[in-house]
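Our working data are protein records whose layout never changes between entries. Getting from the letters to the tokens is the skill we practise here. To make this concrete, we reproduce a full record directly below:
***
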Amino acid sequence: MLEVEEEDPKRLTMTSADNEVVDARTAMKTTKVAKLRSERATQLQLHVDAAARRRLSALQQPVEVWTTGNGTMARGGRRSGNPKLDGVDA
């Protein structure tokens, strides 16, 4: 319950669940800080979850590697970076 102290009318007090008198402004600030921390933790968890989903979906993508029978890449058809050496066995 929120009350105004008789000795200091500018000071608001609250009675806690344990019937202890606490400063209302301090209690409200503490509650606000706890709420902000909770919201930040929730935002961080959403960010972490989204990153994990992206990583998981990337891992689940099929990987295609095209090779010929002799181990060279089928796409492009070249073995080396030098076109004059293509088709020359080392």
